[in-house]
Design goal:
The structure is a single chain. This protein has two helices and 19 strands. The protein is α+β, with helices and mostly antiparallel strands and 267 residues long. Belongs to the flagella basal body rod proteins family.
Length: 267
């Protein structure tokens, strides 16, 4: 009985975390470059159930041999193994603002690979983003809306000295002071990237390999890849599963109550 109690409770916790991920996706459905989180559920380690018994051999000493008959496997619960971002390309929205840039995937050498803009956070560390909603700060540097420097190929902030600049499809920022190559980074395992908030990712990324192709669209933004209708449907399914586990948990609780109050009193 106690095993079923904890199994139902683990199902409720797993569905609650799934609801949190789906709610966050829906809240960011209009955030440029946002990548939807996908949760994966995994069962607790399986236990092999066996029937323990014995067989008496008709000898002078009545020898008793232990026998184990396999019954099957039993899972003891479920949990959310991970919430990995889905790096599927989002739709483009034209803004005609020169500081807006959309990174469009072409051919990638790895199925799980992804391309990202390189930026510098407030601690001076390199982070990555798909949100190309950039602007120019008071010193003429290209920055994100949170004030993080957008980096070039050499890992330095890009000085545009105003709004009068253009960006070619191959990621070259052309300004009056010179040209800079956008710091486009590539990761072969996008599922390993961790979200840090403000549209930033942290993880292993490096130079774009020779087999990868892409283009940068100035005056466009990449939309979030969240499917709001699908997310709402999944939220309803998750909520129903939560309620089902809740009813099972309540039934076990009532059974335990009877075991304590009624069976104990009769004894």
């Amino acid at each position: 009985m106690l095993r079923g109690f904890y199994t139902a409770a683990s199902g409720m916790i797993a569905q609650q975390r799934t609801q949190e991920a789906l709610s966050n996706n829906i809240a960011n459905a209009n955030t440029p470059g946002y990548k939807a989180d996908q949760t994966s559920l995994k069962a607790f380690p399986e236990m092999l159930m066996q029937q323990m018994g014995g067989k008496t051999i008709p000898t002078s000493n009545s020898l008793n041999l232990p026998i184990q008959n396999p019954i099957g496997s039993l899972n003891t619960g479920v949990y959310v193994q991970e919430a990995a971002p889905n790096f599927m390309q989002g739709d483009l929205r034209e803004t005609s603002i020169p500081t807006d840039m959309a990174l469009v995937n072409g051919t990638l050498p790895d199925e799980a690979g992804a391309l990202l803009f390189s930026v510098q956070n407030e601690e001076g560390d390199v982070r990555y983003t798909r949100n190309g909603n950039f602007t120019v700060d008071g010193q003429g540097y290209l920055v994100t809306n949170q004030g993080y420097y957008v980096l070039d190929e050499a890992g330095n902030p890009i000085q545009t000295d105003g709004m009068e600049f253009s960006v070619s499809e191959d990621g070259i920022v052309q300004t009056n002071a010179g040209n800079y190559g956008l710091g486009i980074a590539y990761t072969a395992d996008a599922n390993g990237m961790e979200k840090e908030g403000n549209g930033l990712f942290n993880g292993e990324a490096g130079a774009v390999p020779a087999g990868a192709t892409y283009n940068v669209q100035q005056g466009f933004l990449e939309r979030s890849n969240v499917d709001s209708l699908q997310s709402m449907t999944r939220m309803m399914e998750s909520y129903r599963l939560f309620e089902t586990n809740q009813r099972v948990l309540k039934a076990y609780d009532e059974s335990l109550g009877k075991a304590v109050s009624e069976i104990g009193r009769l004894a």
